[in-house]
Every structure is written in structure tokens, then in C-alpha cells.
Amino acid sequence: MKRLILMLSTAVCLLSSCQNYLDLKPKNQTVVGTLEDVKLMMSSYLFSLTSSDGYPIYFNGVAMHFPYNRDAIASFTMYSDDLDMRRAIENSYGRKYEKEYYESTDWKSSIFSETIWNNFYLHIGYMNSVMKSLGELLGSYEQSDFEKIKGEALTIRAFYIFKLLQLFAPYDNNELGIPLNLDPEVIEGTKRLSQQEVYKRIIGDLTEALNYETANDTWNVFYNKDIIHALLAQVYTFKAESAAKEEKDWEEAEKHSDYIVQRYQLAQTADELKSVIRPGAAGVIKNPHCLLTLGWDITPRSNSYSFWGLPQYGTGQVVSPDLLATYTPGDYRPGLYFYVSEEDGVMYQKFEYVTWTLSDYITLFRVADMYLICAEANTRLNRPKGKELLETFKKSRITGFTTYNGNDVLDEIIRERRKEFCGEYDMRWLDMKRLKMAVSREGIDEKSQQVKTYKLESNDYRYALKIPIESELVYNKIPQNPGWN
């Protein structure tokens, strides 16, 4: 990873008058001198996660917003098997993503991979700068202030590092992790660490934050014990079947997910689930069934409804037929997630945007995810609790459900994950990767404009995204992921 030079300038509206702005000069010109400066660095960043285009924070000359916006979610959905790719760009809303579509039908999108790579490393660089500045003030502040700021930075950075590892590291090759430079003063590019080395950093940072004695403050977003437990549950789940796996991974996944299961209830009705997937307002949104939702009023691509369209007018994204077939009678999710049109088919209506108020949002660390992770971990550990949790989950989604009588509890848990999280950022794509799924689907060929069959093999090289050439490999001589050369 090439060095991210510390250059901060913001136009963040910190007060209602919008007159006070943060302006931190390059590191070699102005030293961050007080704890308040560092607090402002962090609070400005957190503000930027849910701010409009009018008040961004800049780092290295780039306006920073949360990386998983609707553009990324559209690409993840096109990479998954939850969409009818034959019809994804048949209307004006879908056609705004036409270029990404033709790259995604065969899972070879350079636009997608380069955007993800650059954005996540940009945010990691900012967190490095926050922690570097905080470290230079050692001894000049209360421990509680230190833990609130560093706990926030550690958790956010660990989340971004984990996402890069999930997306860009081949699942079966421990030696090919990701490059990782955590020192903003280091200029040289860095080699690809092994996946075990990267996981050690992720888990170490999260464990450090988890062990802090200071409670989170009202301004904290990611520094929250529940969120850290949830993130650790996700980390151990993905790690447990990878080339970096260790003996206790599933036990750790069970421990951290069970921490949430013991403290939170599942949504039990369509209205309760609707409050999770359609928050209705921008900002940092609290919900008893989702540990973190971020919403903002930026309109992607100058259109409040692309890529999902307006299903009631026949311009929505069409649901994959095999996904529809997984739902059983009594399940209230199809009525909430989908819109049925006799003329146009079954379309997604899972997400709801409010013009000028909520143009984009993402639900992170859903309680449902923790229940299903806990069920999967217990099942893989041959514990009866896995089936019990599966039944608890199905009772919360299917009217009249009593007992699961099938023979494959693990397969049913994975099926529930697909039914629950369809269309939600990277959930299905990463499940496909870690479970080494083979996929066959139809899409439109760009040259012939005819329907063509595309296949993704089990453990296919395309499950590890292509490392960008112009923004990374030109500067840092690390090996490209196998298959992309």
C-alpha cells in the first residue's frame, strides 16, 4: 500500500451556524497540539459518515464518506446470486450502473474493486493519523479520554482492514493477505502480510478496545462493546474455514455472537423488521434489532432511486427466481422485501429512500446476523443449541412455525442467511466466498446483447477481487491475486 500522506482539510459544519471549520495543515507544517485537536479530528470524521456533500471532510484531497454506499451495494448485489441479471439494466434506474453491470456479469469488475480498495485504505490512513496524533500527546490527558478516542479509531480501522481482507485475499492461500501500513510517517510501500498476520492485528486491536474500562460516550459510534463483540463474531466466522483458520475459531465466533444473543431479541413482526431495513432518517440510527445503522442524504448519481428503481412502476430490480423459491408459506419477509407485479414480475422493495432526507443508508451488525452466526457456530461444534437457535430464528420470521424436521441444520441456517440478508451490502457475496459456492446464472453479453450463461466455480479465483493496477501495483510491487494476470 502506498503511503497515505497526512493532509486534512474539512468543510464540516460542526455548529448550527455552519461557520466553524476544521483546518489541519500537513503534518510537517503543523503539529496537532492538544487533545481537543484530536477529538476534533475524530468527531469531524464521524460527522462525515452521515453528512451531505456540502460538508465533507477531506483526506489526501479526497472527500470522505462511508465506503459502503449504494454504489458499492449495487455492485455486491450484482456479484451475488440474488438478482435476475437478465433484467438488471432494462430501465433508466438500472442503466445508471450499465458499465458496472457488464463488468459484473462475469465477476470481473475493475471499477468495483478499485473503488473499494482506494476508499478503505483512505479511511485506514485517516485512523492511522488519529492514533499517531493521540500517541504524541501521551501523558497529557485522562485515560478515559484516551480510551474513547482510541477505542473508536481501533474499531473503525479493524472493520476496514477486515473488509479488505475478506474481499481481496484468496480464501485458500494464507500467504496472500493484504498490504498493511499503520504508520502515517512511513513512505515506502509494504508487502502483502499473511492472512494470519492480518487477523492477528484485527483481533488484537478489537480485543484492546474491548478491554478498555471506559464506557462509550454519546459521540462514539463504533466504540461500543456490543458492536465490538458483533464484529469479532463476524471475524471469527469468516476466519474459521479460511486458510488462516485456527482450532478455536468457531468457539470464539460462538462466544462473541452469544454475547449479543443473550442481550438482544430478534424482530418478531413485519413492522419490527421494517423498522430495521427502512430507518426513514439520516444520521446514526438506533434500533433494538440492529446495533448500527448509518444514513445520509447524499443522492447517488443524481437519482434517489437508482439502482433499485420504483417497483410499483415496473422499474425495480427483479429478484432471482431461485431466491424466491426458498421462502415458504407463512414467511412474512417476501411481503416486506418484494413487490409482486403480474406484468413485470417480483421486484425488490426492501429499501426505502426519502428524497432530500435519506438518500442512502446501511444496516451494520444486525441482531439477526448474530443469531444465525451463533446457530452456525454451535452446529459446526456439534452442539444441539445450533438447531434450537435455528428454530428460534424461524419462529420469528414464519407464522405458525414450530419445529425444524430436516436433516441438514447447517444448510438450513445458510438458507436463512440468504433469505434474511438478500440485497444487503456484502452479506451474500461473502457467504458465497467462504462456503465456496459454485454459481451459474444468465446475463446480457455487452457485445452481442444476447443472453449468455456465466459460471463461477467453487473457490473460483474471482472470489478474491482484482488488486487495482494503476492505484496500487504501479507503486507497490506486490503480487496480483492468482488468476488476474
Automatic annotation (TrEMBL):
<feature type="domain" description="RagB/SusD">
    <location>
        <begin position="353"/>
        <end position="484"/>
    </location>
</feature>
<comment type="similarity">
    <text>Belongs to the SusD family.</text>
</comment>
<dbReference type="Pfam" id="PF14322">
    <property type="entry name" value="SusD-like_3"/>
</dbReference>
<dbReference type="Pfam" id="PF07980">
    <property type="entry name" value="SusD_RagB"/>
</dbReference>
<dbReference type="InterPro" id="IPR033985">
    <property type="entry name" value="SusD-like_N"/>
</dbReference>
<feature type="signal peptide">
    <location>
        <begin position="1"/>
        <end position="21"/>
    </location>
</feature>
<dbReference type="InterPro" id="IPR012944">
    <property type="entry name" value="SusD_RagB_dom"/>
</dbReference>
<keyword id="KW-0998">Cell outer membrane</keyword>
<dbReference type="GO" id="GO:0009279">
    <property type="term" value="C:cell outer membrane"/>
</dbReference>
<keyword id="KW-0732">Signal</keyword>
<dbReference type="InterPro" id="IPR011990">
    <property type="entry name" value="TPR-like_helical_dom_sf"/>
</dbReference>
<feature type="domain" description="SusD-like N-terminal">
    <location>
        <begin position="67"/>
        <end position="236"/>
    </location>
</feature>
<protein>
    <submittedName>
        <fullName>RagB/SusD family nutrient uptake outer membrane protein</fullName>
    </submittedName>
</protein>
<keyword id="KW-0472">Membrane</keyword>
